[in-house]
Write a structure and sequence with these properties.
Layout: H1 2-12, H2 15-28, H3 33-48
Helix pairs in contact: 2-3
Protein name: DUF3563 domain-containing protein
Pfam families: DUF3563
InterPro entries: DUF3563 (IPR021946)
Length: 58
């Protein structure tokens, strides 16, 4: 049942929503303020580099 609910969520979410969830989870793993700032800068740098639509950003 869990797998079906995850599959349904995957199919109903847009790519932007999935990326936001991944980014939020990544930021939530920060151990302190410096780590959080480092992760925020890393995400900003990755967002600034244009990627072709066929190439995954990570």
């Amino acid at each position: 049942m869990f797998l079906l609910s995850r599959l349904f969520l995957f199919l109903t979410q847009t790519a932007d929503e999935r990326q936001k969830v991944r980014n939020d989870a990544y930021l939530a793993e920060a151990t302190d303020l410096y780590d959080l700032e480092f992760r925020m800068r890393k995400l900003d740098r990755e967002a600034a580099v244009p990627h072709p639509s066929w190439q995954a950003a990570r």
